[in-house]
Amino acid sequence: METKIIDGTGLARQVREEWRERARALAGRGCRPGLAVLIVGDDPASKAYVRNKVRACAELGLRSDHIELPAATSEDELLARIAGLNADPGIHGVLVQLPLPKHIASERVIEAIAPEKDVDGFHPLNVGLLATGHPRFAPCTPAGIMLMLEREGIDPWGQNAVILGASNIVGKPMALLLLQRGATVTLCNSKTRDLAAHTRAADILIAAVGRPNLVTGGMVKPGAVVIDVGINRLPDGKLAGDVDTRSVMGVASRVTPVPGGVGPMTVTMLVVNAVLAAERACADEAKTEDRER
Ligand code: NAP
Known about the structure:
Bound molecules: NADP nicotinamide-adenine-dinucleotide phosphate
Number of strands: 11
CATH architecture of the largest domain: 3-Layer(aba) Sandwich
Shape: globular
Order of helices and strands: EHEHEHEHHHEHEHEEEEHEH
């Protein structure tokens, strides 16, 4: 079987092109979408992610406020900055780059973001909306994967979808989105017995663990679609996913590369969510003005 490598970079470029128009239309109505990205400390990987996010915003003509705070910033100081951004009408999306330094409770910080500005979709209210089938903001990585499947003409309806990794930011929301699209979902974690027995039953296999080469060709059902979310830095400095791509070639029907697969779609969905947040905020503003007239 010939295995197609899905071009996440090209697809992301195409999606951004489509959303650039929506962002421009909003700006033309006096509502330029604005995203604030806060980072605490100077973790190099987090800084690189933030740079990519800010660059993607600029590419679509969004206002992006990049706020860098020192590692010693207190939780109260961070909460005060978030309160300021919640109240700023020019900012429609607020994102706090995770992980945060240990002295700051991430849950408190996430809960402090106004749910209508929570473009990462991590606020418990947005998690609840997603779980009940009415997502306001789907978390960016799973949302990017869903769009990737759609654009590749892959319909999850009735398919066995197996997800490796059950984190709040990838695995769990991925399971919910696939379930809502009619897939039969298996969500594996570090305690799962006989992982290969599960993966071999997958029509759609999503690896989001953070272990290089966890998935090998022998674990993949012939013809399956393999989505590699993992980003692992190898001792030689190169990036690798969770899938041993070489060994799944000829077995899977499609596979995403690392880099250049899920990563660019994740960043793109953040910008999409920021534009959506601005569209909703400006529509609400227009309704209020109509009522006051
Ligand atoms: P995480 O919070 O560390 O969660 C890892 C999950 O994998 C946990 O649920 C863990 O199980 C499970 N796990 C560990 N060993 C396993 C095994 N042998 N078999 C099956 N499951 C196992 O990780 P994360 O934040 O979701 O990220 C996962 C990977 O995706 C990382 O490499 C990260 O860098 C990458 N990532 C990429 C993007 C992107 O845009 N491409 C975005 C986000 C994350 P327990 O629940 O039992 O601990």
